[in-house]
Write a sequence for this structure.
């Protein structure tokens, strides 16, 4: 089984509220269908979630009543995005079933407190593709906060120990330095967690409550610790996802499980 | 706290696939807002769910692989309906949060096997309006089946023992006989469960996997057994819901809790 994350910046225009990249998602859905693997799919909230979540300061927890409205609006917005993703998957004959974090898990000061893993397993067992996503969530300590798609990938990967975790990004993978700032930056094809600690990476310049690549590296380290490889690849390039799922060598970064 | 069910035939045109009654839902949302009560809202799946569920025979359980696709499509379709309901509630400043049955409960041969009641309570405690709906669901015995909105109302009412349960229908309430067939049919304002057993009622002529009024009477009896009153009222008539929530006397049927 693979756990695959469609990054929010791949499936939406992160700088523009509620702008869904239909063609990209349709192509990725076709690649998934063609590869014919058992998959749990997670997608980011992108501009359907981050802009509202930031406006209402949801990640800081419940501080004023106005945020209740903000939480409700954000939840509905990411559900709208989820509907668009589901429709694309269904159009490609993938039996996707939505598992919304705000209904199946609780956090406690941003860390996992309780999650129903069995619901994912039961749908897998019946031949479905469980689809979850970056979402608002209940938080025991804070009232509510954010469950990012990356946190979800981490939790599910540590629990299910999939064959591989794949992050579908809008860049090819990891570099030794930010290629925008540093002409000597080189692309990393394969790296251990130990080496990862020495590297700096491109950071996301757009509004993002989940801190872009910095948070992702933390996630990847947790996944490596349970012995699972993580692959980062560019979802904007045709067949990178398909080829990777089929074990073909393409431009991507592999972070080796320990 | 009130548990209110918006019937599928009130919020959709049951004979026509995916036809949402925007004006009716907007008016009911306005009445809810105006009444300012603590509410768990359930809505039927109406033509967004029943037609597909029937086509793929989902209520009979998992018998062939094609149904997996049918389950996924039905789930996405009722989620689309739920999005429309949420949007209307949010437009009326109601902090509605979606709790989809297919993610939070399991059935076993159509009966409840497991449900996370705490998620409803936690959202209520924070000031949200939990919104759930008729949905497909996992079924231990059958693989999957249907969790009707009525079953959901029953489960939640028995657990939470609300002040009242209100069924918002497309008819005024219960009659002593089917008023279409029988000129002597009289409207019932107040009735006990014992008397209910003696009555026949209008049955739904449209495609409906959840058996219309017949199933509803069973539900209402279970609710009465825990001492909770159920009110049936006409959602197509302006302010019937609002007036009922405010304790005013309007045309509706009260089934007394025992």
């Amino acid at each position: 089984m693979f756990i695959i994350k469609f990054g929010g910046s791949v499936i939406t225009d992160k700088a523009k509220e509620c702008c869904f990249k239909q063609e990209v998602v349709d192509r990725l859905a076709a690649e998934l269908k063609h590869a014919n693997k058992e998959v749990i799919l997670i997608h980011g909230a992108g501009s359907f979630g981050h802009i509202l979540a930031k406006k209402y300061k949801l990640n800081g927890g419940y501080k004023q009543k106005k945020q209740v409205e903000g939480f409700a609006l954000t939840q509905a917005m990411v559900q709208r995005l989820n509907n668009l993703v589901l429709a694309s998957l269904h159009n490609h004959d993938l039996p996707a079933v939505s598992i919304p974090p705000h209904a199946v898990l609780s956090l406690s000061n941003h860390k996992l407190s309780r999650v129903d893993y069995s619901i994912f397993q039961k749908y897998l067992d019946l031949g479905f593709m469980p689809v979850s996503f970056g979402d608002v969530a209940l938080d025991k300590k804070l009232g509510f906060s954010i469950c990012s798609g990356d946190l979800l990938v981490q939790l599910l990967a540590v629990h299910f120990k999939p064959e591989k975790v794949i992050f579908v990004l809008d860049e090819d993978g990891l570099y030794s330095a930010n290629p925008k700032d540093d002409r000597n930056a080189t692309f990393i094809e394969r790296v251990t967690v130990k080496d990862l600690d020495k590297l700096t990476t491109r950071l996301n310049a757009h509004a993002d409550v989940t801190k872009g690549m910095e948070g992702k590296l933390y996630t990847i380290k947790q996944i490596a610790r349970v012995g699972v490889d993580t692959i980062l690849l560019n979802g904007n390039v045709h067949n990178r996802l398909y080829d990777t799922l089929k074990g073909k060598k393409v431009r991507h970064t592999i972070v080796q499980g320990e």
Q: What stands out?
A: Confidence is low (pLDDT under 50) at residues 201-210 of chain A. Chain A touches chain B at residues 62, 65, 68-69, 71-73, 75-76, 79-80, 82-83, 86-87, 90, 93, 95-100, 102-104, 106, 116, 119, 122-123, 126-128, 138, 143-144 (CB under 8 Å). The domain at 2-255 of chain A is CATH 3.40.1160.10 (Carbamate kinase). The radius of gyration of chain A is 17 Å.
